[in-house]
Amino acid sequence: MIGQIINYRYEVLEKVGEGDIFAVYKARDKVLSRLVALKFLTKDYADNVGFATAVRAGYQAVAPLDHPCIARVLEADPASSESFVACEYALGMNVKERITRAGAMQVSTALDIIIPVLEALEYAHANRIAHGDLRSADIVVGSDGEVKVTDFGLAPALRACPEVADRLGMRSVHYEAPEIAEGAAGSVSSDLYSVGVILYEMLTGSLPFDGPTAISIALKQAKDIPIAPRALNTGVPKSLSDLVMRAIEKAPEQRFSTASDMLADLRAISDALRVGRPVSVPQPSVSARAREPIEREDEGEPDGLLTRSSYLWLILGFVLVVALVGGLTLHLSMRDSKIDVPMMVGMTVDEAREKAREAGITIEQDDSGEVYSNDYAEGMIAVQFPSAHARIPRDKAVVKYKLSKGPSAKRVPDLTGLPEAQAYQAAEDGGFTVGKVTTEYSDKVPVNSVVKQDPAKGSLAPPRSTIALVISLGVKPEPPVDTGADQPEGTQRNFQVNVTVPDDADGQQEVRIVVNDDRGETTAVQEFHDPGDKFNQTVAAYGDNVRIRVYVAGRAVSDERY
Predict the structure, then answer these.
(1) What's 352-401 look like in SS3?
(2) How many angstroms separate the CA atoms of 225 and 238, rounded?
(3) Mean pLDDT, the chain, as a whole number?
(4) d(Cα 183, Cα 205) in Å, to the nearest integer?
(5) Where are the domains of the chain?
(6) CA distances from 558 to 527, 534, 545, 548 (A)
């Protein structure tokens, strides 16, 4: 697949991933000179003509969507013989993978991601298009913070082919609203439910409902009440926790009615957190019974007389006052026995240790090691637990932390054209190492310089991973031309030539063995060897006057006459 030209237009550059439905490749649009993502149905589904047609038709239907937070569909031609969809190339890591690698996100980070997602949905809903299959894996965040929502258009295809949807039961069930599991089509309300689940996952590192099978998860969604995000992560403000719980209400009418409504509340929370002021957001309306005024049963009693109902209210009030006083006393006593955990995420270990000492807390590095983090530099604290502002017993005041290993992926530097030694240094400076090195002839790249590299420049790869290099041997020598002249008259003699490449040589070295005999001057050997290589070469020569010279890296190391 790599190097192929698809549909006379897209040059496939590299494979970037494979999921349940698609294998995804990065390609170059040769017409408009831009990068695109080509999504090919995996073999199991490409052979299903009905599903392949439904997929292309679904993506074609959403092609008019043009929003900065939506990965645009560029081509999905149902008349094409290829089972592929061409989309805008979204460079970055999806939210699901980010959570898997680094756990729950900071509240500010989660808001910075989910707000653009809702802006994209607000635009799509205004154009009467629901995503219908939104998952955390469908949200890609670039290194510059740019957010892209992908896979608009897939849900109609899955709905049109229930046999395929059944095979993919576990793929989306965690994010589907209860009414979707019952057979309803995707809607504004179900999209907002999915947003609520994704936000829950970002804030807690877990899903509100989980189970071994799709049926068990769907049953929990229909019957169980999820644990509030704030109960799992005390760093989540109550207003945000309440918003999430509203978004994942089981009944559609209890959720937000539009993306704009949910977006307005999230922006209010984000603004409040930025300036450090409290905020509350309106909750779903209470039932009609709760809204009705309480009717007085003693309307007919004469003024000035204490009725039986009045006595009961007085007693109840007295009991409440006593309970409040007792609770306050207990609360104050408990406060003295607990410590408020300070924020240590984003600090060095020394800074966190000083902060912990001031609070009367001990910090320890977690045994599970370090984590990748796109938010915090290598060596900084990326995760702490308990989280900031949690209250822990004074006699067990221990907070554990995990250090950041830096970003989970770095951009590969451009090594092509560099001399081999410089390429090694550039790879090291970029946070990578050089791996396998091979050679090939090149009439464009000088000898001992880099012809190709893998991964390609600009692609994303794990830090400290290896880059394979292809080093130039220079211009390929022309094969000897048969001039028809007579063969040399002298007797053929064979000589054993010993060659040693110095141990301290810088990279692979060119070795040449040059023979002067009755034929004139010929090059018997021209090849590259690693530092320290030792080998024995048999060389044929003609006549009684033979001279054999050995060159390493262009320098004569042996000159013998026979």
Answers:
(1) HHHHHHHHCCEEEECCCCCECCCCCCCCCEEEEECCCCCEEEHHHCEEEE
(2) 17
(3) 83
(4) 29
(5) 5-88, 93-275, 338-403, 410-472, 492-561
(6) 17, 14, 17, 8
Question: 26: which residues sit within 8 A by CB, 6+ positions away?
Answer: 12, 13, 14, 15, 16, 35, 36, 37, 38, 89, 459
pLDDT at position 112: 94
pLDDT band at 486 (very low <50, low <70, confident <90, very high): low
Judge: domain 492-561, CATH 3.30.413.10.
Answer: no
User: For residue 331, is pLDDT > 60?
Assistant: no
Do residues 465 and 499 make contact, with C-beta atoms less than 8 angstroms apart?
no
What the block records as the tokens of 91 is 């460079």
| Residue whose structure tokens are 């590969």 | 412
Candidates 188, 137, 193; CA nearest to 21 is: 137
pLDDT digits (tens, 9 = 90+) for 181-229: 887 888 999 999 999 999 999 999 999 998 888 888 988 888 888 999 9
Strands across the sheet containing 10-18? 5-6, 10-18, 22-29, 34-41, 84-88, 73-75
* Cα-trace Rg, the chain: 35
Q: Could you report the per-residue pLDDT of 488-526, keeping only the tens digit for each? A: 667 888 999 999 988 888 778 888 999 998 888 888 888
CATH code for the structural domain at 5-88: 3.30.200.20
Q: Taking each helix axis as running N to C, give the angle between helix 259-275 and helix 188-204, from 0 to 180 degrees, rounded to the nearest 10.
A: 30
Q: Give kind and range of the element (H or E) at residue 535.
A: strand 534-542
Residue 403, H or E segment: strand 398-403
Task: Answer for the pair 279, 239: CB distance below 8 angstroms, yes or no.
Answer: yes
412 neighbors 457 (Cβ within 8 angstroms): yes
Tokens of 87: 């989309």
> By CB neighbour count within 10 A (0-12 exposed, 13-18 middle, 19+ buried), where does 61 fall?
middle
The CATH H-level (homologous superfamily) assignment of domain 93-275 is Transferase(Phosphotransferase) domain 1 (1.10.510.10)
Residue with tokens 């059944």: 166
Q: Indicate the pLDDT class of residue 479, thresholds 50, 70 and 90.
A: low
CA distance 514 to 524: 6
**How far is CA 492 from each of CA 156, 196, 495, rounded to the nearest angstrom?**
79, 85, 10
> Is the Cα torsion angle 345, 346, 348, 354 positive or negative in sign?
negative
